[in-house]
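Worked example 2:
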Amino acid sequence: MKIIQYGAGNIGRSLVGQLFSHAGWEVVFVDIDTVVIDALNREKRYRILVKEANESEIQVTGVRGVHGTETEKVISEIATCDLLSTAVGPAILPRIAPVIAQGLAQRDHPLNILLCENLRGAPEIVRDALMKALPADFPVHERTGLIATSIGKMVPIMPSEVRERDPLEVWAEAYNRIVADRNGFIGPIPEVPGLVVRGCFEAYVDQKLFVHNLGHATAAYHGDLAECKTIAEAMKIPAILRSTRGAMEESGRALVRLYSQELTETDMQEHITDLCQRFGNQALGDTVFRVGRDRPRKYAPNDRLMGAIKAQHKAGIETTFTVEAAAAGILFSATDEKGERHPGDVAFEQFHQEQGVQRLLQHYSGLSPEDPFDREIIEQIKDRFENHRSSRG
C-alpha cells in the first residue's frame, strides 16, 4: 500500500507519515523543499522526538520523496497510489490541484484524498479546482473522495540549529489522531491506527476550533500579558489556567447543546482536561508567539474567537471567558526567537492604533454596531480591553 503525502512539513512527517508508515504503508512525500526531499531519498527514514517529561524517539521508515517540480514523476506516483494526503496550507492547496488532476486522469479507479488542512470547506475548494483542471465530462464526484479532517496534534517551532543539523527531525507531542469525515470516502476506509472516522464531522471541526484552538489562543493572549514565553509557563499561573479552562468550557457546553446527538458532557470534560494537560507540557516548549500570532486570521468572523462567541450565544451560553480572551489578544505583542513580530500582527496593531477597538472588530471580525448582539460584544470587549490595558500599565 502506498500513500502520497503532499507536504513534507511538520504535520506531514510527525503525523501522517508516522501513522501510515507504522501501519505498513510506503510513504512518498511530495514537496518543493530540495533539502528535505534529498534527505528523505538519502536516509529513507527520519526521527520524531516526542516531547514529554520523559522524551522518547520514534523512527519512521519506508519513506522516500519526490520533488514537487518533477511533475511527471508526481503524476506517475498519484496514478499508482492507494491514498493521497495533503498538508500544504490553504494558499497552496488550489495550486497543487492541476497536478493531482493529471494523476487522476491516468487512473482507472477512484482515489481518496485526505485533506489534513484544518480548513473549513477544504473538500469544496479542491473539488472546484479539480473540475477546472479536468475535462468537463470527467466524473470527479464518482472518482474522487475528498475527506475533510480535524488535526489536533501540536508541533512547536524548532530551533534553527536543530533544523540545520537534521532537516528531517521533527519535534511533536505524543498525541496522534487524524479525525476524518466518514462521508467523504469512496469505497473501503483504510484501517490505520490513529485514523478515526466520524459521521457527524461538523461537530469535531467545531470542537477543534472552538475548544482546542480557542483554549490555546486564550492561554497565549493571557500568557503574553503576564510576560510568559511559553504556553506551559502560562498554564502554571492559576488565573490563566482558570481563564483557559473557562473559555473552553463555555464552548464545550455550547457544542454539547448544539450537537447533542454526537457530543456528551462527560466526553467534553475529559477532552478539556486532556487539553489543559497537553497545553501544560513544558517539554514541548510551545511558544506564546507561535500560538497567538497572526491575529487577522484568528479574529476572523468564524474563527476561534468570534466563531466561538457566536456558537456560545446560539446555544444560550455565557461568553465571559471568551470575551476576556478576545480583549486580551488585542494587546498581544509577542515576538519570535529573532525578536520579530508576525507581519499580520503588525498590520493588526497599526489598524488598532489608527482606528480603535470598535473599528478593529468591525474590520477583522465582521461585528456590526447596528446588530444588538454584536454591539453588546463590542462593548464588552472594549470594556475588558481597557481593564487589561490598565493592568498592564
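The mean pLDDT is 97. The chain has two domains: 2-199, 202-392.
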